[in-house]
Amino acid sequence: MKVTLVMALTLDGKIGKTPDHFPDWTGKEDKKFFAALSRKAGVVIMGSKTFDTFGTPLPGRVNVVMTRDSSRVSRDSNLWFTQEGPEEILRTLEQQGYSEVVLAGGSLVNTLFAREGFIDEIIVTISPVIFGRGVSLFSDDVSLILKLQAMERIGEDLVCLKYTVIKEANRWRSPL
After folding, report:
1. How many domains does the chain have?
2. Which position has the higher pLDDT, 12 or 167?
3. Residue 170 located in a structural domain
């Protein structure tokens, strides 16, 4: 199962001002880019705070929402609330025939997947915005070795960086 972490970042490396900050600061090019990647994968995995910023399931793909709240139940065929961990989620999706997922945060969910070694690729878009303070890509210590695969300009002011996670190097590296 290929796991691609896809995040919009400010120039100072933040994914939001607060955990429930609506991502309206990223611009339409970023939203189109994310939609295309996640639709291609067929599945997007996110935490409950990230999902709540959207308010409804993203169309055209399965939305897996990690939550600790067992009372959250889905009425939509493309929405799945779960208390399972990353390994169980990926195993279930693989059994359902999926081979690729987009990990869409937030920082706690990103950390859970990184610590278990499940992230294969990281794609970040850098928006021309600075928050000064805010939510980081990961919520806690994570140590990953990356290899730059591509960089491109998207639209007028957006930069996209695509990295591969070097799994062999990360297996021998302890957290910072």
Report:
1. 1
2. 12
3. no
Structure-token match 């799945």, residue found: 80
Q: CA-based angle 1:145:155, to the nearest 5?
A: 75
* Residue 45 domain boundaries: 2-160
Q: How far apart are the first and last CA of the chain?
A: 27
Q: Classify 39 as helix, strand or coil.
A: helix
The reply to whether 37 falls in a domain is yes
Q: Look up the pTM and report it.
A: 0.92
DSSP 114: H
The single-letter code of the amino acid at 102 is V
Residues 95-100, mean pLDDT to the nearest whole number: 97
